[in-house]
Every structure is written in C-alpha cells, then in structure tokens.
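COMPLEX REQUEST
Ligand: uridine-5'-diphosphate
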Amino acid sequence: MKVLSLGGAGFIGSHLTERLLQKNHSVVVVDYYDDKLLELLGHPGLTMLKQDIREENWGLEKLVEDSDVVIDLIAYANPGLYVKMPLEVFDLNFTENLKIAKTCRKLKKRLVQFSTCEVYGKTPASFMNENLMNPTDPAHATFSEDNTNLILGPIGKHRWIYASAKQLLERVLHAYGLEDGFKYCIIRPFNFIGPKIDYLLNETDGIPRVFSYFMDALINGGQMKLVDGGHNLRCYTYIDDAIEAIYRIVQNPNGVCDQEIFNIGSPHNETSIKNLAMLMRDIYANDMWQEGMPDLPEIVAVSSEDFYGRGYEDSDRRIPDITKARNLLEWEPKWNMVSTLKATMNYYVHDYRLHYGLNSLRDHFKHETIVQKIS
Ligand code: UDP
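STATUS: Structure written out below.
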C-alpha cells in the first residue's frame, strides 16, 4: 500500500511509520521536523518531506493523488498550547486539516483522521455530582463513540477550543460521508504514552504533557507538580498497543472502518495524576536512580491558573468504551500501567540521549529550539 502520512514524524507517526515499513508498505511522511524518524531515514520504503503544510501550494494534491490512503496526524495536541495560543490551535487543528479532508474528498482517497478523546469533554458527574446516585461509578465516565454526548466547558475556558476544532472536523467528515459516501475513519486516542512522547525540556513553547514534566523532575531534579491536586483521572495506553489498533485501521479489512469512529485506549489503565506521580517516583527510585544523581523530587500541589494561566479547565475523567475496536478490529490492549511506565521511563533514562547523540538533555533542548526556528 502507498501511505501518505501527514504529520507522520511526531510521537504517534514515528511509531506508525516504523510498523508500516516493517510490513513493506511505502510511506511518504510530511512533517516540519524529522528527528523522531532519524533511525528510519534512508529506508528504501520511506520518503521524508520536510514541509510546513500551512504554506500555500506546497504540493498536497499530487501527494494525495499518488497515495492509496492518507493518514492525518497534524495537530497541536498539548493542553498547555490550547491555553497559550488558542487561535493557532484552531487554525492548525481545523482550518488546515479541513484542506486535507477536502482534497481527499475531491480525489476520492480514504482518510484516516486523528481526532482526540478530548471531544468527549467532561463527565456529567463533574457538574451535577449531587444529583447522581453514585458519582464515582465508572459508567458516568465511559465514553462510546456513537452515543455519548459531548460536553465542553464555557467559551471563557479556552482550553476547549482544541476539542471544539476536532469535534467540528469530525462533524464535517460525517457530513461528507452522508452526502457523497466519502470514506474516512476517525481515531480518538486516549492518552497514548511511550518512547518519544515529548521532549523533556522546551523553554520557548515549553508545554509538553504531564509525563515529560514528571520525567524531567526525576532526571534533572525539581518538583513534580500536581495541577489542582492531581485528582483528575486518565487512562494511559502504551504506544505499541495503540499502533496495533491503528495498523489494523489503516489495513481496513473488508472496509470495516469506513465511516466509523474508534476509541483507542486502555480502559484498565486508569490512574489519577497524583497516583501517576507516585508510581513514576517509585519506579524511578527502585529501578533507575543511582548514587550521585539528583535527589528524588518532592510532589507538590499547584493551581491550574499558576501552572497554565487563565482559561484552563480540565477533563475530569475519561474511560474508553472499546467494544467497537474489539469487535471490528479484534483488538485488545495488552500493556498494564506499570509495564507501560517502565518501558517509557527506560527510554528517557537510557536511550533518549544516545538516540540524539547528545551529551545532556539541555543540549537536546537547544537543538530542538533551532529546528523549530528554521521550520
Ligand atoms: N498535569 C499535572 N502536572 C503537570 C502537567 C500536567 O498535574 O506537570 C495534569 C493536567 O492538569 C491534567 C493531567 O496532568 O490533569 C494530564 O495533562 P496532560 O498535559 O498530560 O494532557 P491531557 O491528558 O490533559 O490531554
């Protein structure tokens, strides 16, 4: 199969590209940086185009024309960015992605569109606690693709612009499907985690996801900060499990994924952020910490306004209902929480520096800044 992977050099895309190449597909990756794909550059099946897709007339149509399937991974997907630059988040996640969808529709090419579990927003329990018989019942937070309501916060909480942009894009794809049978498949990832998830340090737009903040505090010293006490819950999904499901979606046996939305996540790996901090610190202390390294960090509470600025509001809890992925893809996630964290943390402790051939994480951070300025 000839696969066009837009945004294919990021965290998910780099793992997916590796799998596609292993299975002898040819892959064209378009991304504005390539350092998460370094080991694969030179592979005969891979074409890497360093390109910012926001430029005009850069050749999208020809690439779509030449492909069998298009995968769209282009996104700003870190919550800190939704608060810091909401308009850019909207433009990239909606306006630019819409151009890709329109091109696929025009040329009748199948599109695998990455969306987000964030479209589900908040649980009913988050705002009507007292009215629910049992607000902690996981049923209130288990989200199904085709019948769960999508509940977002007020406009002033502009974190939700990301979820709104993704939701609108999903609605447009659905409408294309209704009007002319457009073949798309939407993936809603639930907190994928694994090697290469984020860079550890990035002071310019320095807003990675929680794992990287915690990992950075463990390796370099500092504090592990729990935003608003770290009470909110997430289901973490190891990237290998995720890639297995995504690969099956790309293959699309008998067209089972056409015009479908899939939750991809591990319902059994639910943890509060506070528990995540404690688990990571325990694993680090037992398996990775050595004499001479910075002391283990303390775990402290901070307010969301101090940490992210105004306009932040959080998803309180989100558990994927994966019945559809089980039935249509015969997929089951295998990695539990501890093995997921150990594998991911090991990469940052042992392989991260080697991978980039750099002496320290701070050197790597400088490298990353330069790449972003050039592109
Ligand atoms: N968070 C935290 N400390 C940090 C960074 C994030 O407590 O140093 C919290 C954040 O408020 C949220 C959760 O961790 O409740 C997960 O945030 P993340 O940025 O990883 O992405 P999300 O799961 O919200 O998309």
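REMARKS: Residues 79, 191, 209-210, 213, 225-227, 230, 232, 234, 273, 314 surround uridine-5'-diphosphate (CB under 6 Å). The first strand starts at residue 2 and ends at 6.
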